[in-house]
Design brief:
Layout: E1 13-17, H1 21-32, E2 36-40, E3 52-55, E4 58-61, H2 70-78, E5 90-92, E6 95-100, E7 106-110, H3 113-124, H4 126-151, H5 158-166, H6 172-175, H7 181-188, H8 192-199, H9 220-224, E8 228-230, H10 235-247, E9 251-253, E10 258-264, E11 267-273, E12 278-280, E13 283-286, H11 290-294, E14 317-328, E15 335-338, H12 345-351, E16 361-365, E17 378-386, H13 398-411, E18 416-418, E19 426-427, H14 429-435, H15 453-456, E20 467-469
Helix pairs in contact: 1-10, 3-4, 4-5, 7-8
Length: about 475
């Protein structure tokens, strides 16, 4: 049973723990269907990982930076009688990303196949253009094959995967089930720079290309189908979802931490908050890291709801900078990647539990790509991949060490920022663990490092009656 299949009772009560995007989407859908919805959130505002920091220029995104897979969000809005474009101003990014290498070469990828192919032709020659064409259509076929039966299936199984393959037997040869993504790219592209570029897409689900299955090559198609920036920042999406849910009767309770999920006669019947107040409901939705349940953080009796998450390998974490500054150097677009000297060197460091010393660095220049002039002082988010807390404990020296690695590396590309950075401008893996309890600092839940990893992720329905899961750690 999924959330939208819940039987509708007159004003049946639903409590949602967490106001991340999963919790907000659930609150909107269910309040629209007539449920009496209450949302409890530890933080001061909604959004979960859609976080911001306040700078001289206003709010700066320090979470997700763009919207992809727009049809999923359009479907959500349509399900409650709304049009996303009536509420959010979206700007499609013609340039998906600008990529920079230490040798001074750059490559733009675009939101249409022909432009990207032509860019690769000019960048690396006709053979690389042909290789990209084959890779583009192979990954498109993979995405189409597994989109409905697996990715949009709330409870996918091995049988569903097998059926998808049997319905399209040729897809097996495009899956390369015995290869890692890195191995596949070595096979697909002669140019090591293109291997490096497309390998980075494993990080979109918290994986290393050295260990992620070749099947994750399909992630590239999520961006190839379109990338949108949000006017007002990504936090605007959270605000809109919250307001639409509130308009339909949902209530939001901030600075309220749920400490315990209370079981009676094998059913979840109430939650207890940080003031020791009990709140009863008929159904409950947990929008937090499922590992918190597995570790008993919300009571011993609900551990079985996600028991396999307690000891599983965790996905990547990150060091995230957020600040505003005057910038000089290369011409940035909204999405930018500055690659390491040695392909995949950061992932070798991460596997050893080290802060990468030769990282690839992602920069979101948030005021660019808006179809408008950008200001003199701009907002930036910079992301470096990192091991989760269980692989590397933070130290007092991390701030200065990360600052030196990040900005000296960018200076090598000629990029400099005029900004007075402080400790609060950096979010570390340990900080993420504090923000999202029991997450281990991981941003994507369970590691994607196996062909069947997606089937092992917690599902929406659980073994605890009345308890459902949503969020980034859930399939």
């Amino acid at each position: 049973m999924t959330l939208h299949q819940l039987p509708i009772a007159k004003k049946e009560r639903v409590i949602i723990v967490g106001a991340g995007i999963g919790g907000l989407a659930a609150s909107l859908r269910l309040s629209h269907m007539g449920y009496n919805v209450k949302v409890f959130e530890t933080a001061e505002t909604a959004g979960g990982k859609l976080r911001t920091i306040t700078g001289q220029t206003g709010e700066i995104d320090i979470g997700p930076t763009v919207l992809t897979l727009l049809p999923v969000f359009q479907k959500l809005f349509r399900s409650v009688g709304e049009d996303i474009f009536d509420h959010i101003e979206l700007v499609r990014q013609k340039i998906i990303a600008r990529h920079w290498w230490p040798d001074g070469e750059t490559l733009d990828l675009y939101d249409d196949f022909e432009s990207s192919r032509d860019a690769i032709l000019n960048f690396s020659g006709p053979e690389s253009a042909k290789e990209f064409e084959k890779y583009f259509y192979d990954t498109r076929d993979l995405f189409s094959c597994f989109d409905i039966p697996v990715m949009q299936n709330p409870n996918p199984s091995m049988l569903d995967m097998n059926r998808a393959v049997l319905n399209n037997p040729k897809i097996l040869f495009k899956m390369h089930p015995l290869r890692t993504l890195s191995s596949l790219l070595n096979y697909k592209f002669r140019d090591k720079r293109l291997q490096q570029l497309f390998g980075r897409y494993a990080t979109y689900v918290g994986g290393s290309p050295l260990e992620s299955p070749a099947l994750l090559s399909l992630i590239w198609q999520a961006e190839a189908r379109g990338v949108w920036s949000v006017k007002g920042g990504m936090k605007e999406l959270a605000r809109v979802l919250e307001n639409l849910a509130a308009d339909r009767g949902a209530s939001f309770h901030y600075n309220t931490e749920v400490k315990n999920l209370n079981i009676k006669h094998d059913r979840l019947v109430s939650v207890t908050d940080n003031l020791n107040i009990s709140h009863e409901a008929d159904k409950f939705i947990f929008n937090g890291d499922p590992r918190a349940l597995a570790l008993g953080r919300l009571g011993q009796k609900v551990k079985k709801a996600a028991s396999k998450e307690a000891d599983c390998e965790r996905s990547l974490s990150a060091y995230v900078w957020g600040f505003d500054a005057k910038v000089s150097g290369p011409d940035l677009v909204h999405h930018n990647v500055f690659f390491s000297d040695v392909t995949n060197s950061e992932f070798y460091d991460i596997k050893k539990g080290k802060m990468p010393v030769d990282p690839s660095i992602y920069i979101c220049a948030q005021d660019r790509g808006k179809n408008a002039p950008y200001p003199t002082t701009e907002r930036f988010e910079i992301i470096l991949n990192a091991p989760p807390v269980s692989k590397r404990k933070s130290t007092p020296e991390d701030y200065e060490k990360c600052k030196e690695i990040t900005f000296k590396r960018l200076e090598m590309f000629g990029l400099t920022f005029q900004s007075k950075l402080k400790r609060e401008n950096l979010t570390t893996p340990q900080d993420f663990e504090g923000l999202f309890p029991a997450s281990d600092g991981s941003l994507y839940g369970r590691s994607p490092h196996s062909l069947l990893a997606t089937l092992k992720r917690p599902k929406c329905a659980t073994s605890v009656q009345n308890l459902f899961l949503v969020g980034g750690g859930v399939h």
